[in-house]
């Protein structure tokens, strides 16, 4: 019995060991970034350390005193929050229409809309730039936000989630006199929370890490976003890597916070994905 028990535990121990090694490998870059940001005068040629030598918050002080980093962070937070909220609204309402409202050519329209996912942003930059210049929206927050208000991926994700909600719930609500708006608000949205949480993370992360479009549209230094400000921390000949790493740590913290907030809904979605 002991031999059988040992054999049955061996695969679990092996899997646990692989997961631990993989987790440590994934955590190491972040730990090294934090350690470098706390090490005064650190550079990429220094020996790799897991504990800072003479730890100091001087790099963070430089970011917020010698550079307008607080405004940069607020710019990115504002753009990411607005983008996420608007994408959740547009994606959820459009997904409900594609899933629950029958109309002629619905499948074709949805397929054409999904096909736009294959068009890279680089192809659209010139026409978008020309349109915004015509409307006088260059170098404005609205100009940076408009192209991000709708996303084909978000509509696809939420449509698939809505399709999993039993239509019998809609029919029962209709018999009670509920209309589409009430069904959408009281039945559909509560049942697709995991998908909404997933879209929240993707939308926030996409806006927070966006570099090319804000770089082209937002020329005013007071309107800069975090990725653009981080690229400006690297000098032409010398680079204060502790300051760069401090900026990198700050850029990771909001993403970590929003993931910790939404992870329970994502886990619920994974756990219930195979339940009929």
UniProtKB/TrEMBL annotation:
<feature type="transmembrane region" description="Helical">
    <location>
        <begin position="77"/>
        <end position="98"/>
    </location>
</feature>
<keyword id="KW-1003">Cell membrane</keyword>
<comment type="similarity">
    <text>Belongs to the binding-protein-dependent transport system permease family.</text>
</comment>
<dbReference type="Pfam" id="PF00528">
    <property type="entry name" value="BPD_transp_1"/>
</dbReference>
<dbReference type="InterPro" id="IPR035906">
    <property type="entry name" value="MetI-like_sf"/>
</dbReference>
<feature type="transmembrane region" description="Helical">
    <location>
        <begin position="110"/>
        <end position="130"/>
    </location>
</feature>
<dbReference type="InterPro" id="IPR000515">
    <property type="entry name" value="MetI-like"/>
</dbReference>
<dbReference type="GO" id="GO:0055085">
    <property type="term" value="P:transmembrane transport"/>
</dbReference>
<keyword id="KW-0813">Transport</keyword>
<dbReference type="GO" id="GO:0005886">
    <property type="term" value="C:plasma membrane"/>
</dbReference>
<feature type="transmembrane region" description="Helical">
    <location>
        <begin position="136"/>
        <end position="158"/>
    </location>
</feature>
<feature type="domain" description="ABC transmembrane type-1">
    <location>
        <begin position="73"/>
        <end position="262"/>
    </location>
</feature>
<feature type="transmembrane region" description="Helical">
    <location>
        <begin position="196"/>
        <end position="218"/>
    </location>
</feature>
<keyword id="KW-0472">Membrane</keyword>
<feature type="transmembrane region" description="Helical">
    <location>
        <begin position="238"/>
        <end position="262"/>
    </location>
</feature>
<keyword id="KW-1133">Transmembrane helix</keyword>
<keyword id="KW-0812">Transmembrane</keyword>
<protein>
    <submittedName>
        <fullName>Carbohydrate ABC transporter membrane protein 2 (CUT1 family)</fullName>
    </submittedName>
</protein>
<feature type="transmembrane region" description="Helical">
    <location>
        <begin position="12"/>
        <end position="35"/>
    </location>
</feature>
